[in-house]
Amino acid sequence: MMKYHIITYGCQMNLYDSGLIATLLEASGFESARTTGDADIILVNTCSVRQHAERRAMGRIASLANSKSQRDGLRIGVVGCMAKRYGQSLFSSLPFIDFVVGPDQYRRLPEIIGNGKRTASVDEDSEERYSELRSRQRRGPCAFIAIMRGCNNFCSYCVVPYLRGRERSRPHGDIIRETEALTEQGVKEITLLGQNVNSYRDGTVDFPGLLEKLCGLSRIERIRFTTSHPKDVSVDLFRVMGSKSKVCNWLHLPVQSGSNRILELMNRRYSREQYLGLVAAARGCVQELSVTTDVMVGFPGETDEDFLRTVDLIQAIRFDFAYMFIYSNREGTAAANLEDLPLDIKKKRLEHIIDLQNRITKEQNTTLVGKQVELLVEGECKKGDYDGYGKTSNNKVVLFKGFCSVGDLVRVEVHRLSGWTPWGEIING
After folding, report:
1. Quick check: 293 and 305 in contact, CB under 8 A?
2. Can you say which residues are annotated as belonging to the binding site for [4Fe-4S] cluster?
3. What is the pLDDT of residues 46-96, one digit of tens each?
4. Which end is more exposed in the chain, N or C (fewer Cβ atoms within 10 Å of the end residue's Cβ)?
């Protein structure tokens, strides 16, 4: 029996897709290998959203060249977004690889591996949803469920619509059945995935409606979702979040910039004022809401004034956490034709907002000290003075002392912060 090993880079959707690939391979008689050294087939699931992600994946793939030369029969494949982006040309830059397969062609993997021929299969399939498949994920209390694929937004800096195709939603019945199957395996929390979950629509069921249906399942304890696009979130969504206790009080809402001029250049299709209004509406509907975001600095043409508008927005909203990064030029996007900023300016701006947001995150988490919070226990701690860690409904990771099992819902009293991470003890009884 041939063994496979998957190396995954990138977002949660890529983790989910690696699970789909595992399901497809195991259905065809392949067996999972714990390490690359034990595998007959190595697949590298790649990300193209930023240049740094591509460099990391390319470096890892290149490191496999020695294994290929020393082990007869070893086959190496590149799958995912880089496969779609570069296609057949990867055979020139990585001459030792055997196959290249894009996100809409994973069903062909058993056939491609089996025929032993060098193959590139990267065509877009606008009908492919992998609806009936179940992603093979690591056992634990939390799991991902992809509810849709693709993106229609065409932000001027982003390659995702070109690599993952147009939006298409899974039937809501398949999502419900997958959730039920996961809860039977002990999963208590699901995270619904999509490039823009708020665009979900299956016939008459929109995204708030899907959440309401999932909340009707008895065994699921918590429901999260990511990512939301500000132009598509609605007050209806906030009302469902506020009225359904199973929907976590956490909203990840990427803002990217606080400057209207830059938002227009990015083709984000909302204004700074609209974004501030959305956050205010969400906080008005959902108690103890945690709001997190993505912020990009150094977009082509960003002036000091534009940057200060972003700084001001971060200070005004006081995000609980932010993913912050420098603009990365992606060939083929509209922004690639704009004049880039000097790297030293981009780095200084990134350092500034990281320092600012880190202070805000610590201040936000300090408000938990002395309070009791409910955690879903996600794992044990092997180091330090902690026995385990878990997450609150509003997405705060808390370390704790006390004995329990992974998957338990426990109450913890927060005593202090370790860095910016809350630390506490389980309350017995």
Report:
1. no
2. 11, 47, 81, 151, 155, 158
3. 999 999 999 999 999 999 999 999 999 999 999 999 999 999 999 999 999
4. C
